[in-house]
Design a protein that fits this description.
- With 209 residues, this protein is of the alpha/beta class.
- It is built from eight helices and seven strands.
- The protein has helices at 3-10, 16-33, 47-55, 58-61, 81-87, 100-112, 143-149, 175-178, and strands spanning 69-73, 92-97, 118-122, 134-138, 165-171, 185-189, 202-208.
- The protein has a seven-stranded mixed sheet, with helices on one face.
- Strand 4 (134-138), helix 7 (143-149) and strand 5 (165-171) form a beta-alpha-beta unit.
- Helix 1 (3-10) runs parallel beside helix 3.
Length: 209
């Protein structure tokens, strides 16, 4: 199984529009990657597994309610934010990175896919205005530092199955890194959802605000 078939296998209820958007993703990133290195070149042949499927593992833990606001911190070229925005067209996504050329790619990809629920912002997370139901990220820093970056960024009202907080994609042994965190934490092994070897040690970490 390869390319979009991999996504459809794990998410069989995609609309025709979502399938088309996922199909177009790889070509768009290959085009931009030739100009600006936003994803590892060795990963491009495993693009749907290592970038798209990994990003939407968060949806295997929780489906965001319509109207939810989500910020992706340290999004790079748009992961996990862009695949999640395709999957949740009725949620609003703010994708943030401190490197301007990466945010240029995010906005160009979003425009090409006609993703009206995505805004890319060239800024540090702590300087972004607004509050969110959830903040997502893919291993940009150790969790204690990440929590500091996102302080004060959560809405008070909860409208999802999980209380507002962080969904973080991270691999390996997290016990030492998470010791200083004094908030409620849950770990979800991605290998419970996907059987590819790449996900063997990968986790979705939920930290309640």
């Amino acid at each position: 199984m390869k390319d979009v078939e991999l996504i459809q296998h794990h998410f069989p209820n995609l609309t025709d529009l979502q399938i088309r958007q996922f199909e177009e993703l790889k070509g768009l990133y290959e085009e931009w990657n030739a100009q600006i290195n936003v994803i590892s070149r060795k990963d491009t042949e495993n693009f749907y597994e290592r970038h798209v499927l990994h990003s939407i593992a968060i949806a295997k833990v929780m489906m965001f309610s319509d109207g939810s606001r989500i910020m992706d911190v340290g999004t790079g070229g748009g992961f996990p934010g862009v695949p999640l925005a395709i999957l949740f067209p009725k949620c609003q996504f703010v994708l943030v990175d401190s490197i301007g050329k990466k945010i240029k790619v995010v906005n160009e990809v979003a425009n090409a896919l006609e993703l009206t629920n995505v805004i890319g912002i060239h800024e540090r997370a702590e300087n972004v205005d607004g509050q969110f139901d959830f903040i997502v990220s893919r291993a940009v820093t150790a969790m204690p530092a990440f929590i500091k970056w996102t302080k004060g960024k959560f809405l008070k009202e909860n409208k999802n199955e999980f209380k507002n907080g962080i969904f973080y994609l991270k691999g390996g042994d997290l016990s030492e890194e998470m010791k200083p965190v004094k908030k409620a934490i849950q770990y979800f092994s991605i290998s419970d959802f996907y059987n590819q070897e790449f996900f063997e040690t990968k986790k979705v970490v939920y930290v309640r605000n």
